[in-house]
Amino acid sequence: MFKNKREKRAFINFLLIAPFIVLTLVFCYYPLYGWVYAFFDYRPPRPMTIDSFVGFKWFKSLIESDVKVKQIVSVLRNTFVMSGITLSTSWIPMLFAVFLNEIRNTKFRKFVQTATTLPNFISWVLVYSIAFSLFNSTGMMNSFLQKLTLIDEPILFLQASDHVWLTQWLWLTWKNLGWAAIMYISAISSIDEEMYEAARVDGANRWKIIWTITIPNLLPTFFVLLMINIGNFLSNGMEQYYVFHNAFNKEYIQVLDLYVFNLAMGSGSYSISVAISMLKSIVSLALLFFANGVSKMVRGESIL
Amino acid sequence: MESIIQETGDNSSKISRKKSGEKHMEKTGSTKNKMHRTTGDIVLEVCCYIFFIFAAIVCVYPFYYIIINTISANDLSQRGVILFLPQEIHFHNYASVLKVDGLAQASMISVLRTGIGSLLTVSASSYLGYMFAQRYMWAKKFWYRLVVATMYFNAGIIPWFLTMKNLGLTNNFLGYILPTIVSPFFIILTKTFVEGIPGELSEAAELDGAGVLKTFFHVMLPVMKPIMATIAIFAAVNQWNAFQDTLLLVTDSKLYSLQFLLYQYLNQASSLSSLANNSSSNSLAAAAATMQTATSIRMTITVIVVIPIMLVYPIFQRYFVKGIMIGAVKG
Hints:
The complex is a heterodimer. Chain A has helices at residues 5-33, 57-64, 66-88, 92-101, 106-117, 124-135, 140-147, 164-189, 193-201, 206-231, 239-244, 250-253, 256-266, 270-299. Chain A is mostly helical. Chain B is mostly helical. Chain B folds into two domains: 2-91, no CATH class; 103-255, MetI-like (MetI-like fold, Orthogonal Bundle). Helices cover 74% and strands 0% of the residues of chain B. Chain B contains 18 helices and no strands. In chain B, helix 2 (39-70) packs across helix 17 (294-320) and helix 5 packs across helix 9. The longest helix of chain B is centred in the first third of the chain and has 35 residues, at 2-36. Classes of the chains: A mainly alpha, B mainly alpha. At the A-B interface, helix 1, helix 4, helix 5, helix 6 and helix 7 of A face helix 1, helix 2, helix 5, helix 6 and helix 7 of B.
């Protein structure tokens, strides 16, 4: 059956991983078949039949129905703004690492690192719970401000409809900053010590060393992460926005992922939700290839 | 992606090399610095300290705030006056929160999914990482790419949900476990790790007549312990924190995880306190200080959900330096 021993072995090795390939196919590729729902009028629990085939009806409704257009514009606005803020502030972890590196006291440096990475390991539900405890009407923030007599009435921070984008970005930063900086801290530790020595001999002060040695050496890492962020532009994830959303901030917090979820699980419009989800996946893939292309052009390296 | 892992792998060796030189460096460095310190340097240093002390406080204080409030008098914490030190310390909250509906069941589900889920993920990842590092495999590149591509592309949560429904995995404990077994990110990590192990090791075993599996179990597994530990902690934290899958797949309250239960309680906190107080026949005298309030229950559950993370976190920290910084890329 096999030409030689090597081929037999190759086949056996394949059989040994086959069960896991099946798992991947079932949980990651089979859902692609679910895209057909976008072309049907699927209303569970009624089974989907050929009669309910509607072609591109749902896709058309995305641009034809006024209500939908309005919703989608608002959802896209939120997605773009929040991803845009994240993208335009993605240099912050780099600076965080650079300045942390300037701290000579190793124990203090370790402590800061430990403290600031902790929030990354808790779930968004816990972040929300913490936010609730600190910022509800009787929470720490309000009682503190009242103690200072800065305010008379408690401020309902979490129910506010203004500054939603900013506060969501702040929570995201609180959770991620320390962790994101670790990449850069590791990159800094791999910079050749001799370069620093040479600069010191030349009489450069620390600002100058940061500007001419540390930061230029971090730019490749920064660039790769930036490209990956561009690939994820439409995928802000939904957990954060789901746990923080309420009737008051809904207009500003609903991003694409959350909108897709709400459409399907909230109002039962599975078909249209799948249609949007499908468009999102395709655009995301295009963005990823675009970012990868840019990376290949600029650095000659693929990010995938 | 893989190039980054390799880079960080290189870094870890550099870090250890640097460490040995560091002590020497610091001695000579500090005296030198004192001599050359300019005003700019001092400004820089002071600003850094102020900023990082602030950052550390902002990250740690919320946890501290919640913990001191759960052990303070409940009427005080209800009013939000406990800011820095606990007052009238008591531990009733932890005793009575156990009576809250569904908490025991949800804890069991969370522990089970964390235990079983991460065990399977770690086993599958190390096995697949090893297999994909094999020299001979039919269409190896294709299968590897097939698996890794899922990291960058997915059908979307609703098609995924409909698939899970068709497979009968809604309201099913297996729905928490099966989809997480093959994790491309962990497979890349183990594959990179295995490729860094000298080939002589497995070759020697094969010369002795051991098959692929035997080599894996007897020769490779012991060597792969560090990477397996890292993945185990990543996977366990992921399972413990998972929320979205319960939200999508589960309507049966018996399968609620702790995270989901906590979220539900956050949204219906007011009805909650009456619930806990009724079940514990509180005499009026006990009242104010130890009486369960919505705030006390919410915070106590929060602490219970956070504690396991805080316990594994110090262990996890050790592995940061070992070169698994790639998580930042994934997130």
